[in-house]
């Protein structure tokens, strides 16, 4: 791949353009807002000048509702040798293209499973896709050269290719991406009218659950409008669980011992099923999840403190597998939770104590 045209310079389009430009591909940028394309070009994602002739790959990075029309226009104008889109739904756009009578041998639908709460070119980074799954949905009609160019794009972005059927992909993202967004927003919405004393008690749990609730509603309306059925199916299952859990909790209020036992069993059931589901989430590098030991260290909110604790962990010969920071409300301090292999935890704890760190159990 020597040339590419990116249509749509938001977070995903600009990030892909940055990755390609950094690896020597001549990238041309187009957006319905010329100012946004100029911003992406200024960031080093390519040029906002039109290409001279056909490019090797056209990447359509527009909202799902506009994918088919944008692709159809690009295909009819013979803009490139191959065409892909990066929308978060795949079945609908392909059916729309078929209805428009487009020749789809040069097209393949794709979806990089990566993103941020922020949108736009200023949020883009060349490493956004590194190590992340990038779904490809070829069909029997897809030309081999087109599939190879799509695979080259994934490789240049240092992502991991995953081949799926388009409709199976849409059902999968309804479960692992679209529904979590709605559930996160629903939980966060409870905070809008909450008493200030309750909000002051917010800890890491509520921060984890509501992190993605900060996402742009306009973007998510477009995504959810393109995949409403599968998302509604997942939410219906969650609603059934909620109904059962509400009944179980009401039973725990009863003065009847048998009802209380039944309520406790109902709550325990959903919690245990949650444990089982969580264990299926891939761990580090996509491998089976590992039960790490947590070494919690009190840390002051001062420049260089994080660097110092990581350096001290390195001096102890311990690899930190993951990290979480829990901020203390109203204080210039917090807890850094270092996730390490269980066998390494005692040695790391002792070493950090020797270096003056306050360890919390």
Automatic annotation (TrEMBL):
Domain Prephenate/arogenate dehydrogenase, chain residue ranges per copy: 2-289
Pathway: Amino-acid biosynthesis; L-tyrosine biosynthesis; (4-hydroxyphenyl)pyruvate from prephenate (NAD(+) route): step 1/1
Residues covered by region (Disordered): 253-285
Chemical reaction(s) catalysed: prephenate + NAD(+) = 3-(4-hydroxyphenyl)pyruvate + CO2 + NADH
Feature: compositional bias, Basic and acidic residues: 269-282
Keyword Oxidoreductase: yes
Domain ACT: 294-361
Keywords: Amino-acid biosynthesis, Aromatic amino acid biosynthesis, NAD, Oxidoreductase, Signal, Tyrosine biosynthesis
Entry annotated with the keyword RNA-binding: no
Molecular function terms, GO-annotated: prephenate dehydrogenase (NAD+) activity
EC number of the protein: 1.3.1.12
Signal peptide span: 1-21
Protein family membership: Belongs to the prephenate/arogenate dehydrogenase family.
Protein name listed in UniProt: Prephenate dehydrogenase
Organism encoding this protein: Streptomyces noboritoensis
